[in-house]
């Protein structure tokens, strides 16, 4: 059956980088992949036309699609809008409405770019970690929350870290399934020595592991995990953790690679329907100049092939094509370190597309 892909270019460099990913999708379609491609507005560009960052029409198309490819949203033009109308609100709305509870953030460092990292090349060259972050629960959503006035007149801020067994179970399953597609090693990160909610987390992950005896499960406290990520990151295959811990650890892991323009991400629901996007923002400082790196967006298409379309071979081909253009020495400005050939956004996209043809 035809798989429906919805393209949401967004703002800033979004339309430029997404155009290159669409070139890749069009080639896959020409090669026989059964997909349909539609586009819609999101973020600031949607606000300009419809007065809201996530128009009903866009949401309806997203609900109806099998996969969504998003560029990036936001920019200084919309920074002074009230919070509910800001472009970034569209992302939260899409995640919430589509029930995307499993956020996959790979940190991959192509050996060709090892010098871009702030860590020693031997520590990070060839790094390939997948962080699975719970995205719709935990302390970011827990109730009660707020700022209250105490009897002594002092203010007190409070939030609630809450996870139910079913929430932990589904993110654990998602992570075990992903580990099965990789090296079958899963590290669950918690703070079970201090937080009851994550003690339950550890208990439930351990229980779910009985269904995945082919995957090696380990547990690590989050403080140690942060340390190990900068000390010896290659020890990890897949990590699974709570919303807040995942937010922090996945940014740290991304920065190990030193190249924000290279990292894709996916957010999946219980049926592997997904939204795919680069981890970077709309980069207003370079928008419209044709210099943005489209590889994170192209690699997001590879993730889409692996997780939603169940086409692992095509995913491998896209990743290999990216590897090959890097080996040829092609570099957009953000990954250019004096060697190789500096190329534009479109030249980089064309080079990957040509490899796939
Ligand atoms: P950013 O990721 O947009 O940019 C940070 C730096 O990285 C900039 O110097 C930028 O030029 C560079 N950069 C980012 N992507 C690049 C690419 N593909 N190629 C080359 N260089 C790249 O983060 P920011 O500047 O903090 O945020 C800018 C806007 O993006 C803000 O409005 C923010 O809210 C929004 N934002 C959106 C998302 C999203 O849509 N998922 C994520 C983060 C930030």
How would the blueprint of this fold be written?
Blueprint: E1 3-10, H1 14-30, E2 35-39, H2 44-50, H3 56-64, E3 67-72, H4 89-97, E4 102-108, H5 121-124, E5 128-134, E6 146-149, E7 155-158, H6 165-180, E8 185-190, H7 196-209, E9 216-221, H8 222-231, E10 238-241, H9 243-257, E11 264-268, E12 274-278, H10 295-307, H11 312-327, E13 330-331, E14 341-342, H12 345-356
Parallel strand pairs: 1-2, 1-3, 3-12, 5-10, 8-9, 8-10, 13-14
Antiparallel strand pairs: 4-5, 4-11, 6-7, 11-12
The structure holds nicotinamide-adenine-dinucleotide.
Notes on the structure:
- The protein has 357 residues and is an alpha/beta fold.
- The protein has a domain at 1-101 and 269-357: Isopropylmalate Dehydrogenase.
- Helices cover 40% and strands 20% of the residues.
- It contains 12 helices and 14 strands.
- It has helices spanning 14-30, 44-50, 56-64, 89-97, 121-124, 165-180, 196-209, 222-231, 243-257, 295-307, 312-327, 345-356; strands at 3-10, 35-39, 67-72, 102-108, 128-134, 146-149, 155-158, 185-190, 216-221, 238-241, 264-268, 274-278, 330-331, 341-342.
- A 10-stranded mixed β-sheet has the order 2-1-3-12-11-4-5-10-8-9, with helices on both faces. The protein has a two-stranded antiparallel ribbon with strand order 6-7. A two-stranded parallel sheet has the order 13-14.
- Strand 1 (3-10), helix 1 (14-30) and strand 2 form a beta-alpha-beta unit.
- Helix 1 packs parallel to helix 12 and helix 8 packs parallel to helix 9.
- It is globular, with a radius of gyration of 20 Å.
- Nicotinamide-adenine-dinucleotide is lined by residues 13, 17, 72-75, 88, 91, 260-261, 277, 280-286, 292-293, 296, 334.
- Nicotinamide-adenine-dinucleotide binds next to loops.
